[in-house]
Hints:
alpha+beta; four-stranded antiparallel sheet
Amino acid sequence: MAEVGLLEWADKQPDWIRDALRRHAARPGFNLEQEDKAGVTARVRHVGGFTADLPECSPLSAEHLRANSSNEPRAVLCSLGPVKHLNRLAEEQQLRFATDGITIIYGDNGSGKSGYCRIAKKLCRSLTADDLLGNVFEIGTKPPAEVLVRFLEEGATEPTPITWKDGTLPPASIARISVFDSANARLYVDKQNRIGFLPAAIALLESHGRHRTELEADFREEIKAIEKNLKTPLPSGYTAAGAVVKLLARLEIKSKDVMPSAAEIKNLAALSEQDMADLAGLEQALASDPSTMATKRRRAKAALEKLLTASEQIDAALSAAALEIYRNLYATADSTAQAA
């Protein structure tokens, strides 16, 4: 079986790949969610030496593949329904299937055929799966879909009824039944050029390959950003053959020496008490520097000149001559008002 070959191959792969394959197998259509992609990326970074903490890896197993083993009893799907809280499907109806032969179902558009197909894809083995949504015309929170499923196991005389609720694991017996629809019609060509449906094991590897291509593209973008930052020239002007110069040399791209750790850089950048005292002395010396003092004086002079100009304007506005002008204007305005 293809699933057995996949497991044998997976067992020879690094832990992060086995963990990624398990994540693929657990998702509808083997397509990873964003949370899964972040988990795979974290494990790849650890393998590359970018993180110290070892993330836990859970390898792919036969249970994750939900394989249709020949040693396990077969099951035949007998009916689906009644259903509850699924689209606008009538809650008291039942879709029955022939246990021996083929069942052809006909219905007009909107009669519910796709709704029952979505149920089957959630219950059985399917490369793709759709969300089971409630009635959009009902107000409030929609409870999870609920369906009564009946199936006949190999060797049994009576069907087994089970009420399944969306969000819980489906019965193992019918989980081995394959469902195909237009979304699942993924074709491949084998060595004899015969066309067939894409097996689950190959579809899983195909999805894993696509994700690895995405990973490569993301890492290349990070590399470009890092290379851009690395083009920034390192500080210079330090004492030749000093500790700082030696450390900066280890940061060069072409350097074959071990890259300094963050602790080394921080320790070398830390200022001692003597360094702090020297810095305070330099600040004091710069504060009394003639050119610095001259600049301060020029700024003070300019500020005082502005203040002097403003004071002169205020003094002129409050002088005796100005007051006499104000009196004459007031007298003129008063006489004009009386004449009117």
